[in-house]
Every structure is written in structure tokens, then in C-alpha cells.
Amino acid sequence: MSLPGLTGEQGTTGTGNSNSSPLRASWPFSLVLSSGRFYNNTINPVHGTSKKENHMKITLHEGLDLSEPEIEIRCHIADPRLKRLIDYIHQYSFSLEGRIGDASFYLHSEEIIYVDSADGRTFLYSGKNVYESRETLASLEEKLANTTFVRISKNCIVNTAWLKSVSPLWNHRLEALLKNGEKLIVSRNYIPALKEKLSQ
């Protein structure tokens, strides 16, 4: 699922790239998702059985009078799939600040491949750059709860949307291969959390 205005790295800088723009300024729309128990009853011509298909109606309203994006979901019952969709939408409702030198950038969470800490400093890794964050790894882990991010070691949080494969290593650890070719180590104490995240 990709919402308009959420591609590319955007940010505001003090002395950096003047072409960068605030992330939130790229959302001039309101989205209404209306989901109910709408079914189409169709007959299978081979077996003669009835098949039910669940449908979701999506309505997009664009207007210059809208000051900020709004997402409203109407449903009969918030089942697990719909709750995951809500978490997915929530992930795109905020950005994280990263710095390169004196320049500040506001990165959307989908741009961040993983977060790592070393020597008391926290870094955000995107497909193009490495940004330093003012927040601690624990603070970012809390902020990224109920998203595609999960902690895989004492010093690393990975975006599972960038995960390509996982392979076993010695000492009950795992090797995570990312879509950009990088490899990360999954500590055995964090394997259950990763498995749970991937099963959602």
C-alpha cells in the first residue's frame, strides 16, 4: 500500500539541500475507507457452491481547503486484518528526524531500512544515506511499535518491509538479508519477536 506523497526522501534543512521540503506538506487530501460486510454471492459453475467475497470501498476526496490529511475507517467488525491495516496506516502518519552535519531531514518510516546504535549514538539507515538521530534506540522502538519495525538485537531495529530472507547461523542466531544486499545478525533472544512480526 503506497499513499500519494510518500515517496522519496524529504526534509527541511538549515544549511543543506534547498530543494528539500517538509514531509507533511505533501498530503493535500482526505481519505475515507468504508469497510463493511459487503458480499457478492456467486455460484461456482463447477461445484455449484456459494462463494462469498469481502469488498472494501475506498473513496478519495481531494481539496485545497483541507489543511491536513484525515483517514476514517467505517467497518462492521475490526477483524485482525483490518487492525493490521490501521497499524500500517499509522506507520505513515509520522516521520523521524535525522541529521547529516548541521542539516536536519524528516524521513518517513518506509524510507528507513534499519536503526542502529553504537557508542551511545543512534543512526537511521536509508537506501541512500546514514542519518544520526537525537533519540535513543529505546525511544525509537517505542515510537515504532505496531509498525513493520522490530528489534533484532540489543543495538538494532529492522524494518521487516526491507527483509528479503532469513537464514540460520551457528549459536542459534539468524542472518537477515535485506533487499539492498546488506546483512544483519538476529540475536537468539530476539528471534521470537521477529517470528511473531513476520507471522502477522
Automatic annotation (TrEMBL):
This is LytTR family transcriptional regulator. GO terms for molecular function: DNA binding; phosphorelay response regulator activity. Residues 96-200 form the HTH LytTR-type domain. SMART domains: LytTR (SM00850). InterPro entries: LytR-like, LytTR_DNA-bd_dom. It comes from the Bacteria. Residues 1-21 are annotated as: Disordered.
